[in-house]
Amino acid sequence: MTTTDVCVLHGARDLRIETRELSPPGPGEVAVRVGAGGICGSDLHYFLDGGFGTIRVREPIILGHEVAGTVEALGPGVRGLSVGDRVALNPSHPCGSCAYCRRGEQQHCLEMRFWGSAMRMPHVQGGFRRRMVVAATQCVTVGEAVSIGEAAMSEPLAVALHAVAQAGNVAGRRVLITGFGPIGAVVLLALRHAGAAEIAVTDIVPEPLALARRLGAAAAYDVTADPDALGPEQRDKGRFDLAFECSGNPRALAQAIACVRPRGTIVEVGVGGAFDVPMNTVVAKELHLVGTFRFHAEFAEAARLIASRAIDVRPLITATRPLDDAAAAFALAADRRRAMKVQLDFA
After folding, report:
1. How confident is residue 141, by pLDDT bands cut at 50, 70 and 90?
2. Pairwise CA distance, residues 302 & 76, whole Å
3. Which end of the chain has the lower number of beta carbons within 10 A, N or C?
4. 159-291, superfamily in CATH?
């Protein structure tokens, strides 16, 4: 038995670094020294507000699900991994036996154990720890060419790959992304990799839009400074083939519906509350309005794309802060004018 430092949220803005016991890996498990962990939007909601919607923090929870590290020890029966392997850690742990898992829809597992989630009680503890024991099946090797911080971007990129897959073939298409936070940014990278012809982006602050242009967006609109910026794209019933709504804002969804051509597709990526949808327009234009939720097989693909730098996530990583400065790191991550993706360093 040994111990490890962990990043624990006790309630809104009550983040503490604590010490927890750590058991050796059991059969089918490995011990991992975590190197980097990205602060996700859900982590921020837990930190700033104690939860989001009906999901609330009801007991201390270790946050974090965007993590990567190095294998330190193997449990009995582990094959395909070695001590010293650098791995992206898949935070999704489906049961494998429920009706959805048997249908190959593991992201909808009825007994899903997703790290750092307060959806269940007791909560599912997350990956913001210096060391942790995980199932070997949750480890995807990333080689030596990329940083551990890059490998920790596998989870958000997997979300983006799954979202893009909901739209079918995007090659040669004109695409709109509404909301350019970290998920909007990885959606842009995934779309470019998939061959989208032209990508336009919207947001309500200018700083993320400057990054969008550097990442290859053909146009980037500040819809606060110019609420009518998308007017030309609404002509002739809409000029975009596809839209990815990444803000969870009802106004952004309405803009996407107005800008996408008849029989086009809108993928709702952002998570918001209940809001009105102009269904008369959806019906009249025969739009495909689809949701997207997490990922499954896409995690290994995301790790492979990052490991080969077929998709380069480095421009998205704004800052890396030591674990002991976690509260300051969360504050920086919440400032959209200064940060895209903030990561914790667990070394």
Report:
1. very high
2. 28
3. N
4. NAD(P)-binding Rossmann-like Domain (3.40.50.720)
